[in-house]
Amino acid sequence: MAQYRIVSGSVAVISIQNPPVNALSAAVREGLLLSVRAAASDPLVRSVVISGHNGPFCGGADIKEFGNVSHLESGPHLVEIFESVEALAKPVVAAIEGFALGGGLELALACHYRFGHSEARVGLPEVSLGLLPGAGGSQRLPRLLGVRAALDMIVTGRHVAAGEALKLGLLDRLTDGNTVDAAVRFAQSAEGKPLDDRRLGNRPCPPLENIDAFFEEALIHARGRARGAAAPLACVQAVRGAATLPFLKGMELEKRLMETLMTSGQAQASRYCFFTERGAARWTTPTGARWDTCRARPISTAAVIGLGTMGRGITVALARAGLSVVAVETQEHQLDEAQRAVSRMLKGGGGVSYSADLQAAAGADLVVEAVFEDMAVKEEIFKQLSSVCKPGALLATNTSSLDIDRLASCTLRPEQVLGLHFFAPAHVMRLLEVVSGPRTSPQTVAAAMQLGRRMGKVSVAVGNCPGFVGNRMLKPYLEQAYFLLEEGASPELVDAALEEFGFPMGVFKMSDLSGLDIGWRVRKEEGLTGPGVTADQPMRTRRGRRYSPLGDLMCEEGRYGQKTGRGWYLYDRPGARVARSDPWLRSFLEEYRERHGLLARRIDQQEVLERCLYALINEGFRVLEDGVAASPQNIDAIYVFGYGWPKHRGGPMFYAAQVGLARVLEGLEKYHKAHPDSPHLQPCSLLRRLVASGSPPIHKWSEVVKGHRSQL
Ligand SMILES: CCCCCCCC(=O)CC(=O)SCCNC(=O)CCNC(=O)[C@H](O)C(C)(C)COP(=O)(O)OP(=O)(O)OC[C@H]1O[C@@H](n2cnc3c(N)ncnc32)[C@H](O)[C@@H]1OP(=O)(O)O
Ligand SMILES: NC(=O)C1=CN([C@@H]2O[C@H](COP(=O)(O)OP(=O)(O)OC[C@H]3O[C@@H](n4cnc5c(N)ncnc54)[C@H](O)[C@@H]3O)[C@@H](O)[C@H]2O)C=CC1
Question: Domain named 3-hydroxyacyl-CoA dehydrogenase NAD binding: which ranges (predicted)?
Fold first, then answer.
């Protein structure tokens, strides 16, 4: 809907009304067009102000309509509305409070003037929905800002703060006061003045030298940002149209590109990600606890125990969310170093105090333990915390895979113990797995989820099992990658296939980055390698299953990855980031195969993808079957926001649905037959049941999962 009223005798104020974000639904579009026509035909009206009702200007097109062509096509089209706004013979001023995003900013660009509140932000984030600004934004913004600045905004989709928008010339004026009042006063002052050069559709794009070279470069850059994603490339093409074509021709190009994107699987996947991100906040547990019925106790003070890689990032994330934090570390040099690192990241003190004594955690509402991944050390700390901390305090561990319930057993408050699994670097990565054990109370989950939101995280509630959801699914993926090396692949081949699929980094580059020694330590603790393994045990079998000792052998050679300058790749020096092929590794693999009588065969990219991804997906179905994740959407949110799964492919479970569950099943059956000693390739029963029930769409999977015992 759009409200229409006349103020100060001559100004029509059109207010978009569609809470919570004033999206441009069919009803809003209808209302807007009628209001614009009313303002045009009323002789008393001499100027117009467009604003958002109750705060935000406009969050853009209504994304919920995108999946439904009949909704999209009902009501007037945005392009038509914006044309009539721009063509109006009376000055139109956009009064932007909160945000003007996507179609919202495109509306503002069709207005003749843009007033912004100093705290507002603007942007064209369509690219992250697999689209481009398809209602004139790709043509009007370059005409206003010039190609360079416009292209940056359109290809990155970033939100621009009001101050920067003013400098760029995107906003004409800022106010700290009431934006609509200021816009009304300005509109009156502009009444009767010529508008021709205020209409962006009439303006040429500011000239740019070496256009061809500029756009070639821009295409390469856009390709590198999100491999395999079509939208960034279409954005570059559309902006090139703005730079080289007359306005109407550019609009035609924009329309053609938009139509192709809109119906693509990539846009569908990106849209799905938009909703899975938000859906994760509506958590449930099988015991009936729900996000909307559970009150969370507020958390305002926190203690972080252990200031290594993770503890430092966690301290920063908590401090940035406004908590006062006490950071505890027993090693003096670590404490000093951490203090410097945290202050640097926070650009100052930021409400953090430091201590070498666990007693300092006594007053905290929440404690996050981030010491070594060693059960005995963690148990001792939880025992102490149980007596040191005040009664209501929540006790969380950042363990990547250890049993939350065992830690809860060391305390007198098992219902207040949970896992807060951050991802490195903890102050940057968006994902937070909120892990509850069988005794964790719903109020504890609620408090953690609320805190996650305050930290700007995508928090996903998961159950307690080794590796929780993300790392549990990663294990079979890594395992298949190792097996492929044994069978004849190189790290370069495996990584290239995964990077072409859209991961920012292949599995071997990723493993070099995070350190091969981490997995080695875990395998030693699990008794898979190290002194506990007797010499008479076959090297490539453990507990009756195929096992690859390649990672262990690499560590025994001191090849831990980037930190030692050598891993699956070679680096110029320890800590360097550019990975180069290492001839040593090739002969190492050849010798290894020879020693074990393995014949190298040709492996293609399709096999790499199917073996690695299907094994990971298969484990995802097991996770659902076990009730460790509440929905496939939650699994996908974990993979997109924590593991670099490309957004334009939706997440592993969405991808499985897009490929076709029957095809995934068939692939797993084929590979399991070829490798019967690899149980991760054996299709799980939920996948079989889903295929048997006709492969229902992803939002209906829960009906097939239902009836199964859950551990969440
Ligand atoms: C050939 C066909 C041609 C068609 C022409 C297409 C023209 C275009 O150029 C296409 C577009 O405009 S695409 C839309 C571009 N806009 C965006 O991407 C903004 C998305 N929203 C946000 O970033 C945040 O919600 C925002 C920053 C706005 C607010 O953040 P908050 O943290 O305050 O709130 P959220 O929790 O994110 O959202 C609150 C509820 O609102 C829902 N929602 C948000 N934006 C929406 C939107 N644009 N459309 C529909 N629903 C939207 C959101 O899902 C949430 O609802 P629940 O999930 O039910 O809680
Ligand atoms: N490194 C990573 O990428 C991730 C690690 N994790 C988990 O986070 C935890 C910490 O890992 P990192 O930060 O990598 O380890 P780290 O080895 O970098 O840091 C551990 C710190 O804890 C300190 N510490 C040990 N005992 C202590 C005690 N009793 N009191 C206070 N401080 C003590 C150590 O001096 C050290 O500074 C582990 O459980 C790990 O599994 C979770 C997600 C990702």
Answer: 302-464
